[in-house]
Amino acid sequence: MGEKTVSKKRGKFDLIISKYGILFVLAAIIIVAGIISPAFLTGQNILNILKQVSATGMLAIGMTFVIISGGVDLSMGSILSLCGVVCVIMIPLVGTPLAILIALAVGVVCGTLNGIFITLTGGTMGSAFIITFGMATALGSLALTVTNGANVNAAAFADFKEIGQGSWGIVPITVVIFVVAVIAAQFVLRKTTFGRINYCLGINDEATHLSGIKVKKFRVLVYTVAGLFTALGAVMLCSRVSSASPIQGEGYELDAIAAVVLGGTRMGGGSGSAAKTVIGVLMFGILTNALNVMGVSSYQQMIVKGIIIMVAVLMDKRSIRVENEMLARTV
Amino acid sequence: MKEKISQFCRKNIVVIGIGILLVFMAFAAPNYFAYSTLTGLLTQVAIYGIVACAMTIAIIGGEFDLSVSSILPLATLLFAAMLPTLGLPLTIVVVTLIGVGIGCINGFFVAITKINAFIVTLATMIAIKGIMLTFCDGMPMPAVNESARQLAMGNVGGITVTVMIFFGCVILTELVLRKTKYGRNVFATGGNYDVAQYAGINVRFIKFSLFAILGGAAALAGTLLTCRLQAGSPLYGSDVALYVVSAAVLGGTSLAGGRGSAVRTLLGMLFIGMLLQIFTYINVYTYMQQLIQGAIVVVVVIMDALPSRKKGSDEEPVTVGNPE
Amino acid sequence: MANTALEMKHISKSFPGVMALDDVTFSVGEGEVHALVGENGAGKSTLMKIINGVYSADQGEIYISGKKVSIKNPLDAQRNGVSIIFQEFNLVDTLSVAENIFIGRLGGKKKMIDWKSIYKEAEKLLKSLNYDLDPRAAVETLSVAQMQMTEIAKAMSFDAKIIIMDEPSAVLTDNELKKLFDIVEDLKKRGITVIYISHRLEEIFQICDKVTVLRDGKIIDTGNVEDLNKEQIIEMMVGRKLDQEFPKREKKIGDVILRAKGLRRGDRVQDVSFELRRGEILGFAGLVGAGRTETMRLLFGADQMTAGSIELNGKQVHIKSPMEAKGEGIALLPEDRKKQGLLLELPITENISLVKLKKVMSKGNLINKKKEKDVAKGYFDSLKIKAPSVTQRVYFLSGGNQQKVVIAKWLFSDADIFILDEPTRGIDVGAKYEIYMLMNELVAQGKSIILISSEMNEIIAMSDRIMVMHDGKICAELNGEEITPENVLKHAIN
Predict the structure, then answer these.
(1) Which value does ipTM take for this structure?
(2) What are the structural domains of chain A?
(3) Where, by residue number, does the polypeptide cross the bilayer (chain B) (predicted)?
């Protein structure tokens, strides 16, 4: 009997760790970074962090939709590059607003194609991996083809640069866009049919289908939304750095996956939220920033990112087990 | 009858594809048909071909590896760094063993902790890329060495040593897959994991070994690439995973596992190689080539998925579950 | 009497809420063909899974050839000479017959495989069994009967002394059935013990020596086949059960609401026609694999029919997807409610509202959580769903309460026609009664029910009319007095 209570207590501890462990890690990173480099905790640096993460954050939100639906999108980086170069190239031709719209349309089309191909191959995580992996190469080289491999400069377009570099008061515009996007995404996930069905796809798409829901249509839509968020991220990024490069997006999809998984949204689908992803994005941004401040090279940061993804997945695997054990006890 | 023909076409799509390319070139550029074209083609596909053999085994065993795209370039750099001190033979051995070691890490996470291979190899791909870039600071490293060059480019009648090694790998893979206990256990594990387990096959070891082999093959390919190009670079071989997976699937190795052959993968390699060769011939832009490579993957994967889905819906409801 | 090959003593096994096997003692003689019969849920498959090491018994002992054995997994069973041939075969589709026979043991201790000798050995084995089968053929190209042969050859290569066949005839054509009988006959000659599980009693009289009847997890009797007739066996299987297990209802049967004409899809559904009336419970009886579920999937648009038409209230409708079926007021409570009927990780509320999210939306097409909760609460109370709250995840409910959630969900969709596929499978007796009450309430409200059930008592007591299916066709329609267990079984097993 005594043994049982002990294990129950430990179970609860495990549950807390698995649920909120991410926040402890976040706190630890902030404290360590603050001690090593006092510059880290200045207001300017914090605003900087927010500004830096907002483009990645947009992709992470799109990725949240995809991962909740039980899929993954490895082509986001390439879509970002493509949308970026299309946007900047179009500005002198059609003006900034229309150029942005065209870029968004490109993102939507790419995402929709992803969705159609994935649905055609059965909609499993495996098919999403391979299809978007192939699409990443195809779209990435399309971006290179469009600019002939060169960068496109956007320094001359003041109205375009305003998006990424301007601010309202002390709040950068990109941060405002990111916050609005998060709220919108959270709202869609919680309040709309699309959001609800998105979860159902990740939990059990056969049961969803047999509940009279058009599963395929919604699955395509998930990737369309991901494409749209990626395009928004592309506009914000290009505007912030005043240029577009056909390889600009390389690696961004991995950052997005890492942020989503770090936030606690489960690979495999069925659970998660945009709010969780915000925590993941912040953590990822702070970590990157802290590593920068500590003088860790961008190359070494990749090692850290790879390890983080693995650890997050392992922790998640463990937390599923802990949760199941806990729940099994209560039944 | 009609069904039989379509089935035949689907099965031999790569042969038909090669045929079409040949016919096209016969009209477009008759001087394509030269012995040097053939040897050039073989030299071009040989290095990735080694990885393709290992990937074929892995796909038959029901797994998949993205991280070869990082292991291969890492191997080129390690090779360049070690060659001056260790000498050629020892360097090849050491670098290959390091590749096996990395593969074992992948294998551990997939076979023992049972995490989806896509995620595992995605994470190791990034981490290894980081290690590699830190190691070389993003710069290529020279590896000028005559005996290394001889090893790669030395040839008998245009057939380079690398091509011979590639053929050796194809034959070895085919032998292992057809003739050894291990090979058949790979088929059984990929074909039906539970049945294989019930039959007393050490399925975990099989899954583990697939990644070890892939790591070793990618590293070996990296060393040969360095021998040929006389330099190591973080940019070499970053498209290898895509290339070899499309070759394997084009050749008829099913992503569902339990089916495939190295010889057919060789045909898949030749098809993609020819396509790229022809693009150069008719001056298609390099970026365009990559675009088409990506498109090939998408098309091939869709084709691979379609017949099996059809079969399912005719007989009984297709149950779709989420992989772990 | 010959030596006993297998003896099971005092085997008990319970699952949460169900006593699957209750002190079962059972013995089979060497070289005997022993039939094991019983209704679905009687405990046959649990018993077999214990012999095969998939489950372990809570209590009891197993003796093989007089020696006590412990079987913890299927490999143990194989080592002890026990081999089960399941309906869904344990074969690797992509490999050859020979390879499947020797899977895991190819080449013995040697690393390299000598295919010639393997094929030769396989051929020898197949020949000795008189099977006309190419050892080089890929399993995926074989017919069902040939797969069965492969499984038997595999068992024989293990020197199996006891071969258990689980419903081997369910999926065979007449010709293949003859072949199966020859095979069983031959096994018997070789001194192999065969345990033959089947619903088709005629087969038992043709090839079995002894028969054991299981009911509700208990052995009812074992006897020589010669001394029994079909009626006696059916009586033992069905048993005399209390009437009050099924609630009575007043019948108010109205006009025809649904008319299916000549539905067809492949071999599984062939020219199926029937009518359903308002306020009626129409039973669909038949053996597993008779095509009942497949027919209902056509009706619900989950599969496409290749021929036939459906009329609802006299109007022809084209149902191509579950969404359209839902729009026409048809509901399907699928056979496998955990995999197909529910989203286990979601709470009761969201499982119910999913089928008609529009109805829980406030202005602007937004989900209103309060409305959603209120709706769920309504059904929660009226259907007496037992759970801590409506936000409880369905995963943690018992089978009966899960089924109620599925019913609630379709009630919420305003369905008029409820297709219930095995609605009480895996549900304990008390909860079953509540489901029956619910069914009565539904028809009292003028809704109609199609009931698929393999439980004889249930289908007989609940249905107003019964269609009996066999091999994808409707082979009988039973009305009023004709509805008896004997009649249903007779038509179902043809």
Answers:
(1) 0.82
(2) 43-315 (1.10.3470)
(3) 12-35, 41-59, 66-84, 90-110, 117-135, 155-177, 205-225, 240-258, 265-284
